[in-house]
Amino acid sequence: MEFESVIGLEVHAELLTKTKIYCGCTTEFGGKANTHVCPICLGLPGSLPQLNKQVVELGIKAGLALNCEITKVGRMDRKNYFYPDCPKNYQITQDELPLCRNGYIDIELESGEIKRIGIERIHIEEDAGKLLHTKRGTLVDFNRAGVPLIEVVSKPDIRTSEEATLYLTKLKSILSSCKVSDCKMEEGSLRCDANISIREKGTEPFGIRSEIKNMNSFKAVEKALHYEFERQVKAVTAGEKLTVETRRWDETNNETTVMRSKEEANDYRYFPEGDLVTLNISDEWIENVRKTIPELPHEKEARFIKEYELPKYDAHVLTLTDSMAEFFDEAAKLSKDPKAASNWIMGDLSRLMNVEGTWVEDLKFAPNGIAELIEVIKDGTISSAIGKQVLEAMFESGKLPKAIIEEKGLKQNNDEGAILEIVNKVLDENPQVIEQYKSGKTRILGFAVGQVMKATKGQANPGIVNQLVEQEVAKR
């Protein structure tokens, strides 16, 4: 019997607002515990919420970017539950009338097939506080309570852990690009829960699902889903009865463990939030928000392939972040050589950034620096090898290539007479080059070229060096 997964993901993304969803407290990450709070976000008696308009706009923006329908007449609801990090004993969220519905994300599978993952709904709500477990007991920090969220709920269209990772990666790139959320998983501003069940391939009914929590990276999501699939298959094959459970991912032991059983659905006793007015969203408001949506990463990728004739791999890597895509786009236009710009940015520049742990936005030079580097290599001022040294100097100082070349005396030597003298000296000192070449080992010429470049400290024109080495070896 062959089984397949049925997976749905629930992603919480904190919104990029300066203040909380129902009060004026800051949403800034960190800060001394319980200092970013007020009577409203603490749920003190007599305090009344007021919905932050920017939260609604960012929710609409996310929905439009994710191909959703916008609910024009909606409301906020109370979701009742008691937990120490929920100061009011209820959460203000949306139940029957979510802000956005019926969207989708298209992902590209390894085979090249495009698969559409449906989005059931996107609703806005407030975040809870944070529990801090210590040796003295559990403490609560309410700084995060009331920070605005969107919850993006996918349809159960995902079939493998790899598809889940592709979906999450694309969702994150869209939300980041739209400036809806900073999506920093390490700060908790992007969190994911997964629902997974199994069924025999070719059948329609869903199996008994498990909800997995406590996953703090996409890799953890992939590993947890893979483990849970294997666990459920093993249990069903052995004749065990599965039950609806909430499980946590144990990163240390690479396994899921039971948190609680959910044999019956939780009764949150949803009802309309009486302290907030009905949401009325006009077509004009929706269109005004639509105008603020930038070119999305997958749209940039397609444009780079078409406009700059880049390989798909290059275009994908260059659009992983907005800052990288914008830097390349400008460098490609200025240099009029997109492939060369791509090679320098994805190669040596990325290596330098990885070593230093920096990002494109931290660079000391602008895209015109890459364009100028390509120019001085093309016109023969320096070789590609010297270009690597120049780029390192640009990275450290922020100076432009021409200034660095002048300052360090790196200009390429194109004097054939001077280079010829060095070639003959290298051949005189390495008679084995002639012997091996005449015996058919032509690759020895590369050694001779390397020795000449070393003797000229990399400043000899490589084309002239190659030509002269071949010429002089053939004469002997």
TrEMBL record:
Known SMART domains for this protein?
Answer: GatB_Yqey
Keyword Nucleotide-binding, does the record have it? yes
Q: EC no.? A: 6.3.5.-
Q: Output the PROSITE patterns linked to this UniProt entry.
A: GATB
The protein's annotated catalytic reaction(s) are: L-aspartyl-tRNA(Asn) + L-glutamine + ATP + H2O = L-asparaginyl-tRNA(Asn) + L-glutamate + ADP + phosphate + 2 H(+); L-glutamyl-tRNA(Gln) + L-glutamine + ATP + H2O = L-glutaminyl-tRNA(Gln) + L-glutamate + ADP + phosphate + H(+)
Q: Which NCBIfam families match?
A: gatB, PRK05477.1-2, PRK05477.1-4
Q: What does this protein do?
A: Allows the formation of correctly charged Asn-tRNA(Asn) or Gln-tRNA(Gln) through the transamidation of misacylated Asp-tRNA(Asn) or Glu-tRNA(Gln) in organisms which lack either or both of asparaginyl-tRNA or glutaminyl-tRNA synthetases. The reaction takes place in the presence of glutamine and ATP through an activated phospho-Asp-tRNA(Asn) or phospho-Glu-tRNA(Gln).
Mind telling me what this protein is named?
Answer: Aspartyl/glutamyl-tRNA(Asn/Gln) amidotransferase subunit B
Which species is listed as the source? Clostridium saccharobutylicum DSM 13864
